[in-house]
Write a sequence for this structure.
C-alpha cells in the first residue's frame, strides 16, 4: 500500500526560505573572496588551465605501466575531480567543509609520495612525513577542522560577533584571513599536483612542459610567494 506523508506546509516554506538565505550568503562571500584575493584566484585559474591542457592532450590514451603507475593515475584523477568543489567551498566561506576537502587533497599527495617511494601499504593510514614541501605541520590544523576537536580553531572559523550579540552565524560568514590562508594552501597543493601529473605523463608518454607551461608555473609560484603561502618548490 502506498504511503502518504502529511507535512505542515510551514516547514516546507521555512526550509525553502533558509535555503535561499544561505545561497545569497554564499554568493556574497564568493564575490568578496574573489575581489579581495584576485591574484590567488588568477593563479588558481592558470593551474586549472594547465591541468586541462595536459589532460586534453593525453585523453583516450591507454594507461600503460606497472601497478604503481596505475595507482598514481587513480589518485591523480581523484584529486583533479575535487579541485573545483574545494575552491567553491573556500570562496563561499564554508571553511569547515573546505578544511575537510583540503585535508583529502593533502593526504592524496602524501599517498602519491608513499607509492613513488614504495612505502605504500593498502588500507593503512597515510604517513604525513611524505607531505609535499615540508607541509606536514599543517596536518594537525586540517585534522582539527575535520573532527571539530580544537575549540579555538573552531571559534576562529565559526565565531561571528555582531552588534546584537550573536556568538556565531548559521550561514557562512566571510573572513578575509581564513579565505586567504585556506585558498593559498589549496592552490599550493594543486600546484604540487601539477608536478605530479607532469611526472606521471612523462613516465607514461614522454611528456615535457613547453616554455609557456613553465611561464605559467613561474607566475603561480610568484603569486604564492608574494602571498607568503609558498617559498618555492624545493623549500
Amino acid at each position: 500500500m502506498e504511503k502518504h506523508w502529511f507535512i505542515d506546509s510551514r516547514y516546507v516554506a521555512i526550509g525553502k526560505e533558509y535555503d535561499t538565505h544561505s545561497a545569497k550568503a554564499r554568493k556574497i562571500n564568493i564575490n568578496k573572496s574573489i575581489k579581495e584575493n584576485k591574484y590567488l584566484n588568477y593563479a588558481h585559474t592558470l593551474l586549472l588551465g594547465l591541468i586541462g591542457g595536459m589532460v586534453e592532450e593525453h585523453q583516450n590514451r591507454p594507461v600503460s605501466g606497472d601497478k604503481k603507475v596505475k595507482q598514481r593515475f587513480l589518485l591523480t584523477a581523484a584529486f583533479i575531480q575535487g579541485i573545483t568543489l574545494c575552491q567553491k567551498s573556500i570562496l563561499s566561506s564554508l571553511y569547515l567543509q573546505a578544511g575537510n576537502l583540503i585535508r583529502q587533497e593533502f593526504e592524496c599527495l602524501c599517498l602519491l609520495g608513499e607509492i613513488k617511494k614504495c612505502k605504500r601499504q593498502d588500507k593503512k593510514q597515510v604517513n604525513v612525513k611524505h607531505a609535499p614541501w615540508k607541509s606536514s605541520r599543517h596536518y594537525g590544523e586540517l585534522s582539527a577542522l575535520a573532527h571539530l576537536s580544537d575549540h579555538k580553531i573552531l571559534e576562529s572559523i565559526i565565531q561571528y560577533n555582531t552588534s546584537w550579540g550573536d556568538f556565531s552565524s548559521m550561514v557562512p560568514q566571510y573572513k578575509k584571513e581564513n579565505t586567504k590562508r585556506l585558498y593559498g594552501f589549496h592552490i599550493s597543493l594543486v600546484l604540487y599536483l601539477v608536478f605530479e601529473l607532469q611526472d606521471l605523463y612523462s613516465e607514461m608518454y614522454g611528456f615535457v612542459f613547453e616554455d609557456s607551461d613553465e611561464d605559467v608555473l613561474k607566475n603561480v609560484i610568484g603569486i604564492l610567494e608574494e602571498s607568503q603561502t609558498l617559498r618555492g618548490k624545493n623549500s
The helical segments are 9-36, 38-58, 67-91, 95-116, 139-147, 151-158, 176-205, 211-226. Residues 231-235 have pLDDT under 50 and may be disordered.
